[in-house]
Amino acid sequence: MSITIGAERLTLDQLRTLATEHTPVVIAPAALDLLDQGAATVARIVEDGRTVYGVNTGFGLLANTRIDDADLETLQKNLVLSHACGVGAALAHQTVRLIMALKIASLTRGVSGVRRETVQLLAGMLNRGLVPLIPAKGSVGASGDLAPLAHLAAAMIGEPRQKVWFEDAWAPADVALEKAGLKPVVLAAKEGLALLNGTQCSTALALVGLFRAENLFRSALVTGAMSTDALKGSDAPFDARIHELRGQPGQIDTAAALRALMADSPIRDSHRDDCLKVQDPYSFRCQPQVMGAILDVMSAVARTLMIEANAATDNPLVFPESGDVLSGGNFHAEPVAFAADQLALCIAEIGSISERRTAILIDPKMSGLPAFLTSDPGLNSGFMIAQVTAAALASENKMLAHPAVVDTIPTSAGQEDHVSMATHGARRLGDMADNVANILAVELLAAAEGIEHHRPLTSSPPLEQALGQLRTVAAAIPTDRYFADHIQSAAEVIERGWLATLCPDDVALG
After folding, report:
1. Active-site amino acid positions
2. What pLDDT does 364 receive?
């Protein structure tokens, strides 16, 4: 299977596939025609001797400097090399592949003035498994993700100092291209600028964060339902009538998912008529309200990022029908920055409410279970410090959730005086998701331990399936043992999406 780019807008499912699988891409024939028209428009500008920003001028504060026609190829190469200023660790391969696919999607709109062979090289690199090394840091999210995308462009021109991952090893870009049977491109007028301008790096990072958040969200509904049964909590707060009266769509869908997860639980049935509790703590009772609000925000984020993934975001933009070349600011990543900040809040809240449920489960006064979920408290500490670890990670995420978009710092001698900070706003989502995967892992272990204290009673079929999946990699912990391995194994169950598959599709983003 391959994904065609340029015929229709990429869907969220296609973007998810591009972010998680090494899927080949095909450029639609109609998109190749659009590329030809845009490139021809730029060629006519050069032939006619018109002065147009990005085609035959300097950049940024140097926009008023006219460049001779004989130097236009050198101008584009110099632009790429001078902007390849990234620092820090390399972005993950999956993120770089998604960046490449998004850049193809943007260029195939045909308004960037780029030749078809340039875009075909990018598709060829993606399909043959070439992954340029893109340092994670160095973009402020306007004027586009210049530094990260410059490293991508440097690979395309075969710059020897630019590293490319190919056949399980790093190699100089020129060597990697030759091994793959590809020729480096000599950039024509405007092509370097078109490759460097754009929000593809920040958008790719945000999309990867979104897809991880979606998995964590669905997994958290499973661990939350397990914790509720382990607590011998009530499913009455999930009654559809309550949520219909409020009308929030995410809340309605989340309550329905929790009802489905807990349906037919013998543990729940055992205390349905004689339970002495009046109400459960908020972290149990208010799951539809909290998680439903998160679902609504994530759905809005998904819409924003899907639009951005299909957008033309370089500058200037070429309009072949009129011959106009218009300078604007589509490279400003403010929509992505807001989306990343909203997503950071969602991820932090998923972890925060999960940690509170774990804290309740280990407290015998609140849960009715053995202290710290161990059969011999005192001699054994049980889940005491596992909950501390979850608390530490939840607190760290509070700091990481501080909005990035409210910050700005002038660049390019004041010409670019307001920037979005979208790129590091989106990049931090990975660290936050790592934290929440481990917070949920602790809850999963604790909830499983709590459920097994109610044996021979069982939980619902889907929750027993979740517990069974956990037990294939992590045994019960009735007495103290080395704990870190259990958290790691449980986190892998979550990261692989095993729990998410048990969650009803009503709470999928599409």
Report:
1. 53
2. 96
